[in-house]
Design brief:
Radius of gyration: 25 Å
Number of helices: 30
Number of strands: 9
CATH topology of the largest domain: Collagenase (Catalytic Domain)
Strand content: 5-15%
Largest sheet: 4 strands, mixed
Distance between the termini: 42 Å
Shape: globular
CATH superfamily of the largest domain: Collagenase (Catalytic Domain)
Length: about 675
């Protein structure tokens, strides 16, 4: 069961206080007036102006490493999911029904007495299989047989899998009428290559702690020579980490779109018995497979041949233990949290078993839970509201394309074709995936976790033999998130994000457009960020730009990358603007399009002020308040190293690139965030 780590304003203050006291501001539904810090100038730090009061009054829960708007929305979704799962557990529905499977999975994970009584018995056959590996061909067969669909299609650059390779099936980038299989880098337990290779004292200390943790996990499992094997495991993971691509390179589809003929893997990546691997994985019938990080696959394959067989067996045994820690006796679960939760992420306490049981159930049977979620908690009115906003934002984006004076007609035509063919799915899928072939037992937590992983892999692999499904969802309705799938030219907006604090039907339109509208605009804009802009309207990876247009676009995006490079969350760490570029483009283009759509919705009428707060102020405050996030230091450092998104407090600052923000908050030259008009970045 894989761990899932699985987004400083005095002038204005005086203006507002003269126009109306904070009590009047509370009349604006959805505005957290108490969060506004009037000791901070909006032009110096708009995030803390909008959220300083919230920052002071909010404590990160002890079982979390960060906390913010997404968590606040998730708490509402979690309450709904908790009710669904608890009802399912109490209902004792018909055997084999999805509701029964939901209840039984939850019950099994919660039964720590049964888990403890079984000890290592459920894991022992896997450990015995690893111990019996006698040669490199047997090693290749094991690696293939345990290939899993553990790739997050939303964040390829931040993939973490402890299997040697990650597995993904996607619409082919060259031939969009079929699916292709892809292999991606893997093989390490810590979040990223930098945790193994960075020479800073903090990382050295983390590696020392990790090596001690590995030894303790082996000792708990009764494995002999735990200390020596821990040294071997960490050394091998470090060699694997040296082969890994950086996040910004792994995100780039042009760099990842490498079709290797299956028969060519042996010559391009010698060392692994690829014939044995592909046969054991059940993908030997594929004529070609995408090597997403080709140099990594070549080097990881070479390590299979060069590193001692005993080192590989020790690593595989440790990974098997770590991967199943949550469904092994509590000593394993506690030790795994002690390092990955407390040391690595900074959370003082582990979440309660019941909360984790609900989360694991929602992950394992996501669409079974989601089906109930959509029926109970997502009314038709919520879907209609979202559809109205989506239509307005797409129309605003099209007008912006028409108005671009630097873009050639041929480029505009293809850009608008992408908008016309964009498939937007809201709330939940039209067709629900089936769990009919998944066996779940109320007294077998380990077996359930193992079968869920196999089921996910088999369902993903089966897509290779089916037609493209444009209606496919990669997110469940209860997930507080949204996604753009550029190869499919499709968007998913799950039901759970269409809730406060992102959207509230009782809230003024300006704040909803600043909130969920900016999120919708963000996802639409991903079709036109530095990565999505490489796909045409049919999902084919090709350059549809004129040379001059693409050069202009790249210049503006690199200016945005430099803007984010200049932010220093820590004195010794900056945001990596290249790593976060696609998300930063989407934030900027998304809030811009949403602002335009909101203005268009007024039909030429002035935006109503409420409690002394103008419409523009409502919009931008709504935007800034959805990015409120507090981090524990280890979690913030981890995000800076591994995540494609800038941390929330810095995402809110993209408003400095919008002309309308300046008069709304009387931002003047000399203030920290002020940009001269010709220095403001305009992508779309």
């Amino acid at each position: 069961m894989t761990r899932r780590a699985p987004r400083r304003a005095l002038v204005l203050a005086l203006t507002l206080l003269c126009a109306g006291p904070l009590a009047a501001q509370r009349a604006i539904p959805g505005l957290d007036a108490a969060a506004i810090d009037t000791t901070v100038r909006p032009g110096d730090d708009f995030y803390h102006y909008a959220n300083g009061g919230w920052e002071r009054r909010t404590q990160i829960p002890n079982d979390r490493s960060s906390y913010g708007s997404f968590n606040i929305a998730a708490e509402l979704a979690d309450a709904h999911v908790r009710d669904i799962v608890h009802r399912a557990a109490a209902a004792h529905a018909a055997a084999g029904s999805e509701l029964r499977k939901v209840g039984d999975f939850y019950t099994s994970f919660l039964d720590t007495a049964a888990i403890g009584a079984r000890g290592l018995t459920p894991l022992q056959p896997l450990l015995d299989t690893i111990a019996a590996i006698g040669d490199r061909t047997a090693l290749a067969k094991f690696l293939g047989a345990h290939l899993r669909a553990d790739v997050d299609p939303i964040n390829l650059g931040t993939l973490h899998t402890d299997n040697l390779f990650g597995f993904w099936v996607t619409q082919d980038f060259n031939t969009p009428t079929r699916y292709s299989a892809a292999l991606l880098q893997g093989g390490i337990e810590m979040p990223d290559r930098s945790y193994y290779l960075d020479s800073s004292s903090r990382m050295v200390d983390l590696r020392t702690g990790y090596r001690a943790h590995v030894a303790r996990m082996l000792t708990l499992a009764g494995i002999a020579d735990a200390e020596a094997k821990a040294d071997s495991i960490v050394a091998l993971e470090t060699r694997i980490a040296r082969t890994h691509w950086k996040v910004e390179d792994s995100e780039d589809p042009a760099k990842g779109n490498n079709h290797w003929a299956r028969a060519d893997f042996a010559s391009k990546a010698p060392g692994l018995d690829w014939a044995a691997f592909f046969t054991a994985a059940g993908i030997a019938d594929q004529d070609s497979i995408i090597a997403w990080q080709p140099s990594t696959i070549t080097q990881e394959s070479a390590l299979v041949a060069s590193e001692p067989l005993d080192s590989w067996k020790a690593l595989l045994a440790y990974h098997a233990i770590e991967d199943h820690a949550a469904v092994l006796p509590s000593a394993f679960d506690k030790e795994s949290f002690a390092f990955f939760g407390r040391t690595l992420s900074g959370a003082p306490e582990q979440a309660t078993r019941d909360k984790r049981a609900i989360d694991f159930t929602s992950d394992a049977l996501g669409f079974a839970v989601g089906h109930q979620y959509a029926r109970r908690y997502f009314p038709a009115s919520a879907k209609a509201n979202a559809q109205r906003m989506v239509a307005g934002i797409i129309a605003a984006f099209q007008k912006r394309i028409d108005a671009l004076d630097w873009m050639a007609p041929s480029t505009k035509a293809e850009a608008k074709a992408k908008l016309r063919t964009l498939k937007v799915s809201i709330g939940y899928p039209d067709k629900w995936p089936s769990y009919a072939s998944l066996r779940v037992a109320a007294n077998d937590a380990y077996g359930n976790a193992d079968r869920v992983e196999r089921f996910g892999f088999q369902r993903t692999r089966a897509k290779l033999h089916r037609k493209i499904d444009k209606d496919e969802w990669v997110m469940t309705p209860q997930m507080v998130n949204a996604v753009n799938l550029p190869a499919m030219n499709a968007l998913n907006f799950p039901a759970a994000i269409l809730e406060p604090p992102f959207f509230d039907a009782k809230r003024v339109d300006a704040m909803n457009y600043g909130g969920i509208g900016a999120v919708i605009g963000h996802e639409v804009s991903h079709s036109f960020d530095n990565l999505g802009a490489n796909f045409d309207s049919k999902g084919r990876l090709r350059n549809w730009w004129t040379q001059e247009d693409f050069a202009h676009f790249q210049a503006s995006t690199q200016a945005l990358a430099r803007q984010y490079d200049a932010y220093h969350p820590f004195p010794d760490m900056t945001i990596n603007g290249q790593q976060t570029l696609s998300e930063d483009i989407a934030d900027l283009a998304g809030v811009t399009a949403s602002y335009d759509a909101w203005k268009a919705s007024l039909h030429g009428k002035p935006a109503p002020a409420v409690g002394g707060i103008t419409g523009d102020q409502q919009f931008f405050l709504g935007f800034a308040q959805i990015w409120r996030t507090k981090f524990r230091d280890p979690a913030l450092r981890r995000q800076l190293l591994t995540n494609a998104h800038a941390p929330g407090p810095w995402r809110a600052l993209t408003v400095r690139n919008l002309d309308a923000w300046y008069p709304a908050f009387d931002v003047k030259p000399g203030e920290t965030l002020y940009l001269a008009p010709d220095a403001r970045i305009r992508t779309w």
